[in-house]
């Protein structure tokens, strides 16, 4: 007899208590990228470890050379075994003056009539989403004394800084992390009523370039009109990365990009994503993506290039008539299909070098590189999850790619040989990576119920 | 009988003492742009006021709403009256780690065999150059008890921040500042052996632009490929300011630019300024100025555009996958001839706005605007100065425009109706506005002798 109704009822009754637990985790400022917060980041790891231990997991902190991972096991011989991944580190909070509430004092607010959210840094990314899954586990254990599947929980502390220690950790501990598939709750819903299974994620190439012209900063009166200005050169180079149709001009960039099937495109077209709803929410009107592509393609199945930061010369108050000796930019590419991150990084370096006069030099920092990831659409895990979500949300379940990158999915595939089920409950307006991050209470509540259903389905 | 030989002998004998006086003035960190140094900036004004008072001038500090001006009078009825201008504020010193010596502990160093310099912030710009003139006055007074001409000395404290209070001060005190011509010692020599009378100075338009796209910073995975990136837009706009021949593309920009006479061009060509010597000293090879123009034109008689600063997005350590909501740049133009700073600022605003989609906005800050300045080449003052310099330096005297801007010369012309004699002793490698600023002792010494000669000539 299905224990699901009782588990769901327990989740409904326990929502307030689950919010209190989430709030106490959110209060720990685990800003992993900032060494000033090292102690608090570790404390956030320990908070989760203790909670999992109380739930009956064998739960430990394992050192990595950076922030520790939380590793918890609850084996179930004879049953499928899942590996759940999340992260306990959160984004920095600046600029602080743009927050309506304090980023590490979670509050529950009604942002529209009948729509409550919890506001804090990490409310969605990733603590809220991790707890969405953990609460489903808690209620299942409390109600039934067991889980339908074996479970390993792996929660790291460096995702916001590129997870530098994770791939080697996975490699070194592959035997201990053995599983049939992975589960990640870090993606978004299609909209507030429609759940989403993420079928692909974009890869990432993150580069930094510094151009050096003169051997020092120059007076722009004495040298202006003759001396090369690296800001001009950098601006022109970055401006040439896209042509007037929105296509990226780096040679060879589109190698490995696959054209979707007509059926796939028809499915996407049915989703009817419009510029008005997608861009309107952020104060924009017109997509700058490749002409001739649907908006839905531009944001998940087409590769991109974005300059994430640029600096050079005098940037303080007032004026200074300087021609700087250097100018720099951080440039990242989102990859799809079989685009090769190593080749693209090299092509970008060449693209820059080809545009330099012989008295200006370029230096590069390669911050990260990971290929795109695809999940087989017909896997039994995905079918079961789709049915469970349809039962919870009562309507359609969208399966589509995400524009974002979750490189650990690629590590699971390459190193552990397993696919990942990506089901998350974030929303486009959650303001992850921005001030005033929030997570809808309906996402938290119905997400818990969704995972409880998925767990039951995976064990059957 | 000429008292000049005795005055020159006194200057030769008094060089060390003059260096000590200059050093004590240089020790006062009068960083006018930084409010933290307000007291020291005022102290530098008082130092000069007291020195001029001791020389027999009626010398006062006059309040302006910002830093005070030093105003000193020594009238001489029946004689021509000159107005000497300089500034006691100095540039900031960052980055401090690039200085070989402490910026406010002046030292005398031998940078090449037989070539000594004094190293400090302000050593050239402008305290060294001001004292070059004052020492000539001191020696003339000490030797003869009088000056050949009437003299008003006006030394302000806000030149490095755009002299915002000076034009209204000059207007309000025009009667008191009445003179036949102005004298400014703030320009450079042609080379270490060749003095220079500056015949034109470039004007200045200094603008700041901020583009705003989305109403907040965005996650580049979720929004990349669709959301407008203001860094890209700004880069493309700035990259379009020049065409491939080095010409500025802002419509109407070249209105008011005059073609020099063939005789003028021949004179300039005779100076034989090469890329190797001019750009080689700063580690560059190729001029980026307008094709078809001599290097000497590009740096003083052609107008320019330089981006002085650019910033946007994430610029810290490591990586952050953000599409910023804003990007900004400081853009300045050097003007020549009759180019109109008001029209050029407006044309720049339109240039930017013409290139924006309708969901991206631009805001501008107009930091400053001043037209170019020309000095009549046949004025008696200029002829006298030319002969005095030829006597001191023993060879040719170059008369050419400066690439830099000294807007107060324009205020003297428009408000007081007087022309300015620009004779200075700076050198291209003085590193004004950079770390390790210095002033050659030969510039200080022979500059003092030059001004003593010029003063005698002006009174005859």
Automatic annotation (TrEMBL), chains A, B:
Matching SUPFAM superfamilies: Zn-dependent exopeptidases
Domain Peptidase M20 dimerisation as annotated: residue spans: 208-359
Top-level taxon: Bacteria
GO biological process: proteolysis
UniProtKB keywords: Hydrolase, Metal-binding, Protease
One Pfam family cited in the UniProt record for this chain: Peptidase_M20
InterPro entries the UniProt entry points to: Cyt/Met_Dipeptidase, Peptidase_M20, Peptidase_M20_dimer
Molecular function terms from GO: metal ion binding; peptidase activity
NCBIfam families linked: PRK08201.1, PRK09104.1
Protein name as it appears in the record: Dipeptidase
Organism of this sequence: Bosea spartocytisi
């Amino acid at each position: 007899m299905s224990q699901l109704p009782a588990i769901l009822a327990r989740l409904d009754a326990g929502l307030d208590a689950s919010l209190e637990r989430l709030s106490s985790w959110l209060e720990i400022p685990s800003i992993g990228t900032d060494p000033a917060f090292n102690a608090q980041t570790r404390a956030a790891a320990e908070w989760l470890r203790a909670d999992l231990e109380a739930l009956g997991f064998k739960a430990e902190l394992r050192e990595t050379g950076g922030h520790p991972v939380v590793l918890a096991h609850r084996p179930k011989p004879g049953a499928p075994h899942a590996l759940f991944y999340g992260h306990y580190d959160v984004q920095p909070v600046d600029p602080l003056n743009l927050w309506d509430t304090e980023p590490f004092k979670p509050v529950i607010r009604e942002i529209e009539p009948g729509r409550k959210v919890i506001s804090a840094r990490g409310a969605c990314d990733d603590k809220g989403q991790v707890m969405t899954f953990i609460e489903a586990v808690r209620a299942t254990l409390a109600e039934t004394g067991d889980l339908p599947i074996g479970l390993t929980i792996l929660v790291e502390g460096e995702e916001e800084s590129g997870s530098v220690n994770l791939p080697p950790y996975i490699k070194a501990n592959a035997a201990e992390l053995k599983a049939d598939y992975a589960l990640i709750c870090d993606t978004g819903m299609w909209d507030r009523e429609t759940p989403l299974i993420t079928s692909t994620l974009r890869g990432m190439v993150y580069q930094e370039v510094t151009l050096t012209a003169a051997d020092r900063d120059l007076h722009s009166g004495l040298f202006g009109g003759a001396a090369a200005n690296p800001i001009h050169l950098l601006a022109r180079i970055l401006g040439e990365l896209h042509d007037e149709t929105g296509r990226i001009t780096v040679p060879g960039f589109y190698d490995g990009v696959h054209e979707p099937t007509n059926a796939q495109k028809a499915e996407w077209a049915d989703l009817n994503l419009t510029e008005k709803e997608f861009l309107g929410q952020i104060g924009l009107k017109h997509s700058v993506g490749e002409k001739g592509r649907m908006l839905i393609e531009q944001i998940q199945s087409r590769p991109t290039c974005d300059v994430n930061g640029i600096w050079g010369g005098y940037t303080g108050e007032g004026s200074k008539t300087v021609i700087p000796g250097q100018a720099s930019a951080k440039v990242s590419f989102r990859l799809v299909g079989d685009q090769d991150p190593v080749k693209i990084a090299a092509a970008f370096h060449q693209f820059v070098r080809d545009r330099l006069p012989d008295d200006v030099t370029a230096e590069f920092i390669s911050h990260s590189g990971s290929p795109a990831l695809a999940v087989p659409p017909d896997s039994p895990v995905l079918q079961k999850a789709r049915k469970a979500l349809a039962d919870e949300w009562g309507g359609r379940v969208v399966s589509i790619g995400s524009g974002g990158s979750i490189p650990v999915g690629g590590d699971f595939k390459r190193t552990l040989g397993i696919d990942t089920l990506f089901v998350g409950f974030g929303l486009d307006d959650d303001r992850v990576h921005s001030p005033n991050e929030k997570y809808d209470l309906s996402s938290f509540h119905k997400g818990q119920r969704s995972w409880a259903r998925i767990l039951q389905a995976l064990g059957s």
